[in-house]
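hi! just following up on the protien thing from before. the input was this:
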Amino acid sequence: MEMEATDMDVEEQPRSSLNPNSCKRFGLKNSIQTNFGDDYVFQIVPKEDWTAMAVSLSTNAVKLYSPVTGQYYGECRGHSATINHISCSGASAPHVLHSCSSDGTIRAWDTRSFQQVSCISAGDSQEVFSFSFGGSTDNLLAAGCKSQIIFWDWRNKKQVACLEDSHVDDVTQVHFVPDHRNKLVSASVDGLICIFDTDGEINDDDHLESVINVGTSIGKVGFLGESYQKLWCLTHVETLSVWDLEGAKNEASFQDARSLASNSWTLDQIDYFVDCHYSEEAKRLWVIGGTNAGTIGYFPVNYNGVAAIGSPEAVLEGGHAGVVRSVLPMSSMQRSGIFGWTGGEDGRLCCWLSDDSQINRSWISSEFIIKSPTTRKKSRHHPY
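and the predicted 3d structure came back as:
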């Protein structure tokens, strides 16, 4: 039997050493236990209209919840191995959720019925680690399948290309560049980031534009800057770097990122990085670091001039009892005072509320107040 929604009493946490003049209080609204047992929360992504959020779990299922109330809607179940990446479609298909798995498939689900509506197989011996939709009509599907990048036409589900020579190890990330929908970025355990032009017939020889050598296994990449011409990169050994895509130039490198973040606060040392968050409005980048006990902080990253990681401008403390795997910042369109949601290896989904009436205290900087999506470009895609 599953427990899908419950408020948890959390002991009051000591305030962190942040400047109260530049921050405002917020606290833990509630915590949802996604399942009994030792199940992990892998990833949390929102539907474009924020009417639901999808949560991938180590049970090989995706569950949907209300991002405002935490109400459980239902689950999509069909994968037979670990779900590595989930993404909700845009306005053209608002009720479609996509997922890929180590079972070698990429599946589409109807979030109203929770039923599978489409499936592409990369082969029984393949594992699919990441996928992205792009091309001139957004119907070109790229996926990282072991050391290959495979492309399909989503309309007829036919494979149109396979890049085999660019990487020699698992391709952990593929992302079409926002506003440059024919350009694809891939990243791999081999330490390389490759940039491809996918216009025309795709092949390794003619379509590889440039290669960035990060030097160690890459976990996550994402875009930042005007026209998304820059890239942030987190590695599996917890280093952080920022690159210019046009010239494949390194703009900042933090080989000791954990130490820099740990030294900028008085709480436990940073053990890992969850993700990065870039604000278009503030034109600022934060790296999200966590402790094994479940506390996470948003650390500002200066990648222009003297590279530095500053004191955290938000600390989420008292919700998790283990490693945090995913962070979903909320939009102010909800007008609910919710800062966001986090999920972790303790199986919990935690909702963080910007509300002075809460007993449990953490801190949030006013920099994290997000403008209404009506002021954003409608074509904006959100890399993770």
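The first helix runs from residue 204 to 207.
The CA atoms of residues 64 and 74 lie 6 Å apart.
cheers
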